[in-house]
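Forwarding these from the shared drive since the link keeps breaking.
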Amino acid sequence: MRTRPLKVALLGCGVVGSEVARLMTTHADDLAARIGAPVELAGVAVRRPSRVREGIDPALITTDATALVKRGDIDVVVEVIGGIEPARTLITTAFEHGASVVSANKALLAEDGAALHAAAEKHGRDLYYEAAVAGAIPLVRPLRESLAGDKVNRVLGIVNGTTNFILDRMDTSGAGYSEALDEATALGYAEADPTADVEGFDAAAKAAILAGIAFHTRVRIGDVHREGITEVTAADMASARRMGCTVKLLAICERAADGNSVTARVHPAMIPLSHPLASVREAYNAVFVEAEAAGQLMFYGPGAGGSPTASAVLGDLVAVCRNKLGETTGPGESAYTRLPVSPMGDVVTRYHISLDVADRPGVLAQVATVFAEQGVSIDTVRQQGRSASGVDAAAAAQDGGEASLVVVTHRAPDAALSATVEALRKLDTVRGVASIMRVEGE
């Protein structure tokens, strides 16, 4: 074993960074044995140096992250500060000064991954980022290495623990969205500002990374169709249960049937209870991969949190350090297919549409005509009368009351389904479109 240690600079010492530092200390002997050389924490860049950080030598703390990555004796930089800047500049500076990089920064990789890979290649350095997607679940490396000889056609997954917890609570307890969000916040699953999670930004960044790796093409977060869960209601959950389904926020990356394009999208969807993803509960993540030769594979585990994410960081650290000792680098960007990313309108999917309609003869025929005019075939229809109340009572009485009409379609282009919904809104017999949700996983 080499006696000179490999020096590691840690950028960020929050929940994940502090756990990385702790594991590097407590597992020092095992890491040295697995790598073939000891690893040494050479510096920790933070914004608030006065904070007490147990187990970390105060002499290692610095607020000058730039000076730390420029030292020249740093072998690996671990970046867990997140965001676009200063992370992007610090990573490229690290490459320029001889260090490889391990990152958990999904937002930066989804936005500017191609440029970061190019900088790593230019300077002969590694860029590893297993922790950027699905926490402790080994996913990036299997897609990038284990399935490198196969053709991946679809990646379907739950990649955000906060939203999965909220939807799971809504499904199992009958709680509304606000109630479930409050519980997630109280338990520490949701941030004080949950926007990135509940509006789908976090999942969209991960979808962009997964699509790029799976299909060997460049996909940025702006290419990903995104919808959050804030409009999902208890009524949607009840309707899903009646169909033998549940609701999940899914990241779906697909290769087109002709192989000439890809799509990437994030949105809530109903999936059958028989699908493996339907049983993913609480804040867990799971990703379903469909490959031509390997068939269907499922990766499951904790998708967030200090320890799970730090586990993924340490796995990358071991791989990068081994490469450093062997004077080689691991796989870089693979974007040779140069496949275009098709718009959401080209996606072929199914819809579950709930309508508030006038309860009178001929309404169903009118609704069916709209679907037919847009070329969308109806699979099932469920109609239920209900009493009117409030300001609509007089109109409801004139029309014979109100009814709820639930339509589930066959597969059709998303653009046709969207056009159908817009046409339905214009019918005088349709009081409102109560909810729209896609049906997946069949």
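-- next protein --
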Amino acid sequence: MSSSFAVPDASVVSRLVRILLERGLTIAAAESLTAGKFMATLADVPGTSGTLRGGFVAYATDLKAELVDVPEDVLATDGPVAESTAMYLALGAQQRCSADIGVGLTGVAGPTEQDGHPVGEVWLGFALPGQEPVAERHQFAGSRAQIRKQAVAAAVSSLVARLGNKSGSSDVGQSNGK
């Protein structure tokens, strides 16, 4: 999927936090290329403490396994920039932080390609209550900083879409009591 996201729109970030709070859902993330920007972006919204559980910056490949439980064989076979890795990052964040929702962000911010993956390739993983983890691929352009901002914006926008724009408009329900 080719994408063009700018910086995360504050109203979309606020909408995501509002949806999470209204539904009593908690969230955690495991971030690689964004190095904590996703969680910091959510934390900028007043009231986030009612939903934000925590997260991991697993920039180094070995820490993806050690901190967030991405299987070592997945990292050896698929690598750190892969659909499977993004899904395991999301699932690991969800489970390790006892959160309802886990988000995983991995990719190549540049300035050069990594293991055959082009600059701007980003995988976003999502673990939602009662659903199998999923991932989506994006191809961003721009500077290293722009790619990282676009990854955060895409993750926020995707979560809003996955959870529904209005309270009660999605089949993702209340917290499952984790």
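The mean pLDDT is 91. The longest helix spans residues 144-163.

- D.
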